[in-house]
Fold NADH:ubiquinone reductase (non-electrogenic).
Amino acid sequence: MAGADPHHDVQPSQVRHRVVIVGAGFGGLAVARALGNSAIDVTVIDRRNHNLFQPLLYQVATAALSPADISEPIRRTLGRFRNIDVKLAEVTGVDPTAKVVKLGDGAEIGYDRLVLATGSDYNYFGHDEWRAWAPGLKTIHEARLIRQRLLLAFEKAELSQDPEEKKALLTSVIIGGGPTGVEMAGAIAELGRFMITRDFRKLEPDHLRVILIEAGPRILAAFPENLTRWARSSLEKAGVEVMTNVPVEDVRRGEIVAGGKVIRTGCVIWGAGVKASPAANWLGIEGGPASRIKVNPDLSIPELPDIYAIGDTSAAFGEDGKLLPALAQVAKQQGEYLGNALRHEILEGKKPAPFRFHNRGNTAVIGRNAAIFDFGRWTLKGRLAWLLWALIHVYLLVNFEKRLLVSIQWIWRYLTRQRGARIIDENAAAAIPSSTERTET
Amino acid sequence: MAGADPHHDVQPSQVRHRVVIVGAGFGGLAVARALGNSAIDVTVIDRRNHNLFQPLLYQVATAALSPADISEPIRRTLGRFRNIDVKLAEVTGVDPTAKVVKLGDGAEIGYDRLVLATGSDYNYFGHDEWRAWAPGLKTIHEARLIRQRLLLAFEKAELSQDPEEKKALLTSVIIGGGPTGVEMAGAIAELGRFMITRDFRKLEPDHLRVILIEAGPRILAAFPENLTRWARSSLEKAGVEVMTNVPVEDVRRGEIVAGGKVIRTGCVIWGAGVKASPAANWLGIEGGPASRIKVNPDLSIPELPDIYAIGDTSAAFGEDGKLLPALAQVAKQQGEYLGNALRHEILEGKKPAPFRFHNRGNTAVIGRNAAIFDFGRWTLKGRLAWLLWALIHVYLLVNFEKRLLVSIQWIWRYLTRQRGARIIDENAAAAIPSSTERTET
C-alpha cells in the first residue's frame, strides 16, 4: 500500500494524518517544510525531480547560468525530514469523495488533506500551435530550447550569404511585456551585441534587432507608471524596440504577424498571459480569473474543505480586495501560512486566522546596472536597484554553494561581459538548413 | 564566396594560404592557436559550437558538474585571432583533387592545406543497435542522457513495489574497463550510496549494484600491472563488482547478457572500443588500426601531401615503435607541432622535423582519495595521486572562471558529498512506466 513506510520512526499503531502536496515549487515546498519533522505524514508529488528558482531562469535561456545553478533536487531539499516522502510522478486526477490522488501509472495515493500547488503555464489564448515556434519560459527544457535557438540563429546568420536572411535570423521577438519579457529582451540585446562584436566575423551590430511586443498600452503594467517609463527608455537605450498596443496575430515558422505586419525572425519567445495548471479540472470545478481556483480566507477550496490551493493555482485576494499576483513571494507566504495552519489544526485542533499577504516589493531587471523596485510606499530604479536585485536573488538561492557559484559567475560577467554557458546541444549542425527553418527537440 | 572576408585587416590583393581544420577538439584547437594572428587564413569547421574538456565529462554524467563547466564556445576560444574563421557545419566529404571540403548544406570550402582532427567514437563491434540501450560518453548530449537514466532508475526503484524490479533498477552496468569505464563505475557507486542513504526512503544500500565488465584479462590495460591491481581493489572496496575476461554478448531493453548470464539493469554505459570518426572514408583510403589513418612522421597522409591527420584520427607511432594512444595530450602535442610546422613551412618555406611525442604521464581516477598515475619511470597511487589529478585537471581548464567554479564545486563535494547537478530533464514522470522499460530522448 502507498501509505506503508517501514522507515518512519513512529509506532505503527498510531494513526497519523496524511497531507499530500502536489507540486514542489515555492508554495508546495514551503508547506512541506512547515510540516517537516512533525507527527504528520507528508507526501510531496511532482513530475520533476527538482525545484526551480524561476526568477533566474531567463539567465539560463540567455547563456549566463547553468540549469544546475538554479535548481535543486526536491529530495535533497526535503531529505532531512523523516516524515516527508517524495514521489516523482504525474498527477492525472483527484477523487475528492474517495480522497485519493490519481497518478499517471494508475496508482492512487490516499490523503486526509490535499494541497494543490501546481503553478501556472503560459496562455496561448487558444493558439496552442504557436507554442512550437514560441516557447514560454517555465522549465529547464524550455530555457535550453530557447538558448539553443538563439545561439543557432547567430550561427546560421554567420553562414548565410543572403543579407535579408541574415537580418531575419538576427531578429529576436519577445511577446509579452511582463517582467520575464523585459528581462529576456534586455538580456538578448546584451548577449547579441557582445557576440557580434567579439566572436562573429560576418555579422554587423546594426543587423541585430530585439523586439518586445506588448498587446496592452504599457510594459510592466504591474508597476507604477514612472518606473515603466524609465524601464522602457532603458530598454530602448539597450537597443530593444518596444511595441505597445500591438496584438500578435500569428506565429509561424520563421516569422510572426503583429499589428498587421509580418516580421521575419530567428527566435521567438512567449511571455504573455498566464493560466493556472489544470487543478480546477481535476476537481471538476469552475476556475476563477485566469483559471485560478477561488479559495476561502484560509486557502481551502469552498465546498471541498479538505483541499487547499496556493500560489499561482489559487485566486486569493489581498486586503485591498485585489487579486494577489502570480509571484513567488505570494506562493511562499501562502505555503508557510498553510503548513503552519495545518500543523496547528491537525495536531492541536486550532482554527487558523485568515491568510494575510505582506508585500515584500516587486522587481524587474532590464540589464547591466538597470532594474526597478516597487515597495508600495517608495520605489527605486537604476544601478542601486540593480545591485539590490542581485543581492536579494543571490540570497534567495537555496544554499551556500549555489550562492557562491552564481555570485562568481555574475562578477565574472560584470567584468568581462562573457557568458559562460553558450552551449548549443549536440548535432546542432544537423539542425542547420540553409533557410530560417528550425527544428524541434 | 567562402574565402571572402571583409573584416580581415590585410591587403585583399595579397594571395594568402588557406588552412582548413576539421574538428575543434584538443588537436584542432592547438593547430588553430599556433596559426593565430599569422598571415595565413584559417577556417575551423566543427559540427558543435563548443570545445569539450572530455576528461571531466564523466562528472557531468554523474551529476557532479554542469556541461558549461567543461565546455567553451569555439568562437570564444578563437575570437581574438582575426585570421581565424569558425563555421558550425557538418563535413560530409573531401575532394582531394579539387581541394575542397564538402559541407552538409551543399557548400564547399576550398583549402590549400587540410587538417583532419575529427576525434573518435565508441566501437560497438558491429552491434550499433546496442547504442540505444548503452550510450557512450563522448558528447554533452550523451552525458545528460546517462545522468537522466541513472537518476530516473533510482526514482523508479523508489516507486516500485516489486523487490526484484527494485534491485534491477538499482543495478548499473559499465561495459569496458578503460579509464572512462573505471571513472564512471567509481562515481556511480559513490553517487548511488549517497543518494540511497540520504535521500530515498524505500531503498536499501545493499540493493545497489555497480558492475564493471571488461572483455580482456584486466582493467586499465594501458597501466602497469601493480597499478591495475590496486585500482581494482579500490573499486571493489567502493562496492564495484569487477568482471574481467567476460565478453558482452547482448544489450537489450532493461538487461544485458555477459559471459552467458542475463543481468537486469536500470542503466548501461558503453566505454569499450574506440574507432576513428569517418575521415578515412572521406578520403577513400584504407583506415589503419581502429580505422585510424596512417601518417608520415610530419603527420601528413601518404599520397595526399596537403592533408594531415592528428589526434584520435591518426595512427602515429612513438619512438618505441608503438601506436600512440588516443589521449588528449597526444592530440594537443600533435596540434601544436603541426600548427607551428605549417606556419614555418608556408611562410618561410622551412621543412619541419618529424613529430616526437613527450609522455606527460597517464592517469585514471577511481573515486574520493583514489587515483593512479603512470609517468613511465615512476608511478603514484592513492590520495596524493588523487590530489595531483585534481590539481592538473583544474589547471587544464580553459580559463580562470571555470577553474574557480570547478574548484568550488569539488571542495563543496569533498566536504558534503553532495552533487550539485542532480537534474532529471523535464517530463521525467512521463518517462516512468511501471516496468524497467526506458524511453529515448
In short: Chain A touches chain B through 62 residues (CB under 8 Å). Chain A has two domains: 18-47+89-122+274-348, 128-272+368-431. The first strand of chain A starts at residue 18 and ends at 22.
